[in-house]
Amino acid sequence: MYRRTVNSMRPPLLLIAAAVVGVAVAAIPLLYLLVRTSSAGWNAVVEALLRDRTLETTITSVALVTLVIVGCLLIAVPTAWLLARTNIPGRALFLVMAALPLAVPSYVMAYAWIAEFPSMSGIGAAALVMVLATYPYVAIPLTAALRSIDAGHEEAARSLGLGPLALARRVTLPLAWPAAAAGVLLAALYTLSEFGTVAIFRVDAFTRVIYTAYRASFDRTTAAVLSLVLVCLALLLVVIEARIRGKSQRWRIGSGVSRPAPRQQLRARGTVLGVAWLVGIAVLSLGVPAWSLTRLLLVSRRTELDVGELVGAVVGSASSSILGAALALLLALPIAALAARYRSRIVRSIEGAAFLGHALPGVVVGLSLVFLTLAVLPAAYQTLAVLAFAYAVLFLPKAIGSSRSAIAHVPPSLESTARSLGRGPLRAWCTVTGRLAWPGIAAGTLLVVLTAMKELPATLMLRPTGFNTLATELWSRTEIQAFGSAAPYALTMIVLASVPAWLMGRWMARSPETATSTDRADDEMVRTDEVAYVGGVR
Amino acid sequence: MTTSPAVPQLSLENISVGYGGPIVVRDVSIEVEQQEFVTILGPSGSGKTTLLRAIAGYLRPATGTVTIAGTIASNERTWLPPERRRIGIVPQEGALFPHLDVAGNIAFGLRDKKKARARVAEMLEMVDLSGLEKARPHELSGGQQQRVALARALAPAPSLVLFDEPFSSLDASLRIEVRTEVRRLLADIGTTAILVTHDQEEALSMADRVAVMSSGRIEQVDAPWTVYDDPSTLNVARFIGDLVELPVNEMQGSSAHTAVGWVPIRDHRESESSSRRVVLRPEQFVLVADRGVGPDPQGVPGTVESIRYHGHDSLTSVRLDDGPVVDVRSAGGAGVAVGDPVRVVVTGTARMFTDPVV
Q: Residue A451: which of A19, A1, A52, A103 has the closest Cα?
């Protein structure tokens, strides 16, 4: 039976107004950056753009991103094939191990590697760490895609005379590539916005150059111009990613019972090689960080751990992140409520504008808010409020995504029935839709809190003097090569970052009481998307 | 609220609804009397659910006036939101609030929380579910959920109850049981009701009057038997029940000559159109085993092509020697076999329509 999922009524003006305000507020940093850049004068902008430095930085960033893309594919494709299409032993365990790197913030991984191999530096080192940190974004969806291809398609192709290679080229790859491509672009986007890893290995990519230019404080036009170039590159990735994702969802729509493709039975040699491959990847992505961290923790027990400082950093992380997440939720709720229920052009533009926020790197938001507070409200410069605002801007798309899917799971007929039973629009929303969507919205907000805790560059630029978070403590200790004393902070971050993964696992296992069977297919889709955003590398 | 019997419980005047795009409901007018049970019958996409949503106030018609018990609920200037219309709604699949127990669901629309308990008990007794106050919606069977949804809709004593295909998710035997019960219950308490459905059996068996919708228009509003026996348009005739359509060869007065011979036409009006057809129901035909006896045998000759046997009746397709195929309904079995030569006799009168423009 078909069910109307989208309200046919025109969306309430007040809700649209609130959503527009949310998007507008989130757009402030980018807009101000544009204003600031243009106020420097056309000549200065052109001059900054044409500087050798700009070209070098672009080349470095693009090269790094390319290396990461290639590396992710090289690791993820064989891994996904082994996990999805062979009878290799220990699949469940290896699948978990392929997802676990998401729980290690990328610069914590960089720190673990450099602490073990202090001579590591340069683009190769950064690419290696970024690949190890982001390959799950490709491997996990690709494994799922390979599993979900209906055996019937491949059997039909074989019976039509295709050999194994032709089958891969003409059937399997076309069906699975959107999942892989979307994951690759996600990995690329995170690499482009990544600051910590790039800085630790002294790679002059955009984020580090912008940060350095900002610190040097005499070259702020360059910093602003480079930021805009970076945003343009990121926007490109976000737009392509969204397109591919849309396409892959269209493909996944289909009814009828489908059988997963059969697994290839590996012979002894194949099994040994396959297990060796999976173990090797696990050693690099999990083993090295685990070994390094354990060793450092043992060292740091001999050096002195200042418990007071650690607690202070946790409190700092928690307070700023919770404040930021609350603000993000406030801005996100009207947009999410609108996007979940209405489909008009204005709603789509609001949602689309908010989605583009994925393309805002932390370093850009940090820089813009430094400029803005100094120019407009010097009293707010380096206050907790501005830091929380930066988090809200950075993680607004995430907050919208989770709230939106939570609200969309509540059948609209419940709310309209509540209206007929005498409740006004706001009360009906709060007592029915909001009430039922609440667990999902809360889980989403918690995700934002935990993601914000990992944020580094904007925190470094905007934090009040003397205010420390786990990320900044880890950073400042790594900077002076005090690897041992940084270990407890790294460990705390990993523990906190594992919470979302654990939470998502629980969430995916639970079946919502309101969901019908047709919903569940949607669910899976939304949740696969969600998983892709968990553990954001920023 | 007391209204004089002269005031219809619901009146729609020239309602059109579009979702800012193509018009989904076109120029619909209908009046529903107090205590009347009206079903709106139409294929999916005919605009019937949209019309229901306009009555409930979930969407605003582009034009026209909705009047509920003499009060204007919606026109060009006025707009009454759903919560102020005093309309109960029983949505598809019940749509019970999953976070509330049965009592919480039924009390949801009650203002006076002090009297809520007594009212909930009263409603539960009415739908024969006493003792289930604390049950959660997911613990109930489909039929129970539907009855709770009805109790919830009726608890605030609405002036009108709307049913949006409420029984489509129930299995066949349960559907008939719940249907009968709902009809009896509404008759007992004298509530006006409108039920939207695409199931013609449901529409015909429950209604005082049936409104047949097609392509956003109401094509006919009449008693169920009138809609079946005397359809006002070819669309209505085709949508309800089985139909035999035969082209008209020539007219003589108010009789039409067709492949089954001369058929008297009901309400015959002269029309300019040259191409017309008569429509007959399969039960208007009688099968005669063809033995070729007598100088002037009754009916026209044909051959049995297929037989669909349903137990209580059977539908026999006969290819007439003149070409067309007619379906003949017989009580029980037809007593013929595929390939048998038979004769078909027509009884009663028929409606005649102009051929639709293809």
A: A103
Same domain, B205 and B266: no
Q: Does the reported pTM lie above 0.80?
A: no
- Overall residue count recorded for chain A in this entry: 538
Angle (CA) A231 A235 A241, round 5°: 145
Does a structural domain hold residue B166? yes
Question: Any idea what DSSP says for residue A400?
Answer: H
Question: Which domains, and CATH codes, for chain A?
Answer: 52-251+266-302 (1.10.3720.10)
The 10 Å Cβ neighbour count of residue A50 is: 10
Out of B49, B50, B156, name the one closest to residue A421 (CB): B156
Which pLDDT score is estimated for A327? 95
Q: Which residue of B has its CA nearest to A512?
A: B98
In a domain, B1, yes or no: no
Question: Distance between CA atoms of B187 and B192, rounded to whole angstroms?
Answer: 9
Domain CATH for B224: 3.40.50.300
Which of B194, B212, B239 is at the close of a domain? B239
Q: How far B181 CA sits from the closest chain A CA (Å)?
A: 22
SS3 B294: coil
Angle between helices A13-39 and A42-50 (to 10 degrees): 80
The reply to whether ipTM tops 0.85 is no
Residues B176 and B218 reside in one and the same domain: yes
Check CB contact under 8 Å for A418 and B56: no
B131-156 pLDDT tens trace: 898 999 888 888 889 889 999 999 99
Residue-wise pLDDT tens digits, B243-287: 999 888 888 878 888 888 888 888 766 665 667 889 999 999 988
Q: Which residue of B has its CA nearest to A9?
A: B59
Mean pLDDT rounded to a whole number for chain B: 87
* DSSP string covering B6-46: TS-SEEEEEEEEESSSSEEEEEEEEEE-TT-EEEEE--TTS
Identify all chain B residues contacting A515, using CB atoms and an 8 Å cutoff. none
| Whether residue B295 sits in one domain with residue B225 | no
CA distance B59 to B81: 9
pLDDT at A519 over 60: no
B267 in a structural domain: yes
The total of structural domains in chain B comes to 2
Q: What angle (nearest 5°) sits at the alpha carbon of residue B259, between those of residues B255 and B261? A: 45
Domain match, B180 and B312 both? no
Range of the domain at B121: 10-239
A residues 2-21 lying closer than 8 A (beta carbon) to B: 2-4, 7-10
My answer on whether B226 and B271 are in the same domain is no
Q: How many CA atoms lie within 13 A of B160 on its CB side?
A: 28
Please check whether residues B258 and B219 belong to one and the same domain.
no
A414 Cβ under 8 Å from any chain B Cβ: yes
Q: Strand B351-354 vs strand B276-280: parallel, antiparallel, or unpaired?
A: antiparallel
The side-by-side arrangement of strands in the sheet containing B341-346 is B285-289, B341-346, B300-309, B313-320, B325-331
Co-location of B206 and B96 in the same domain: yes
| Residue B5 within any structural domain of the chain | no
- Other C-beta atoms closer than 10 Å to the C-beta of A160 total 11
Residues of B in contact with A432 (CB under 8 A): 97
CATH number for B307: 2.40.50.140
Of B209, B239, B269, which residue sits at a domain end? B239
Q: Where are the alpha helices (DSSP H) in B62-190?
A: 102-107, 113-126, 142-154, 172-189
Backbone φ, ψ for residue B238 (5° rounding): -70, -35
Alpha carbon distances (Å) from B282 to A170, A217, B329: 54, 92, 5
Compare all CA atoms of chain B with the CA of A425 and give the residue at the minimum distance.
B83
Task: State the DSSP string of A202-236.
Answer: T---HHHHHHHHHHH-S-HHHHHHHHHHHHHHHHH
Task: Indicate if B274 and B208 belong to the same structural domain.
Answer: no
Question: Which one of B50, B83, B88 has the shortest CB-CB distance to A424?
Answer: B83
